[in-house]
Amino acid sequence: MTMTETAETRLKRMGMRSWRRGTKEMDMILGPFADDRLAGLSATELDLYDELLLENDQDLYQWVSGQVSPPDRFAGLIALIRDHKIAG
After folding, report:
1. What is the CB neighbour count within 10 angstroms for residue 36?
2. Whole-prediction pTM value?
3. Structural domain of 71
4. Is-contact 65 58, C-beta < 8 A?
5. pLDDT tens digits for the chain (88 residues)?
6. Could you tell me if residue 2 is inside a domain?
7. Of 40, 41, 50, 76, which has the most beta carbons under 10 Å away?
């Protein structure tokens, strides 16, 4: 989050970036997660999600689908996304 970015603007930006990925698969995974869960994440979790949005879609898909283990720092967040995808 930049110094001039409000919390509301940050959530909107992150939501948009979640829905406008490089692959349709990640749009359909991260978009609904962002819509349903971003507002409830802690500041630390939002910082981590912001970092996650910088990752390559192919890597993200492999992490969420369980094909490859995510980096340790993203493991908890990927588990939240995976659980949301399964529950949704």
Report:
1. 12
2. 0.90
3. 7-87
4. no
5. 556 889 999 999 999 999 999 899 999 999 999 999 999 999 999 999 999 999 999 999 999 999 999 999 999 999 999 999 777 6
6. no
7. 41
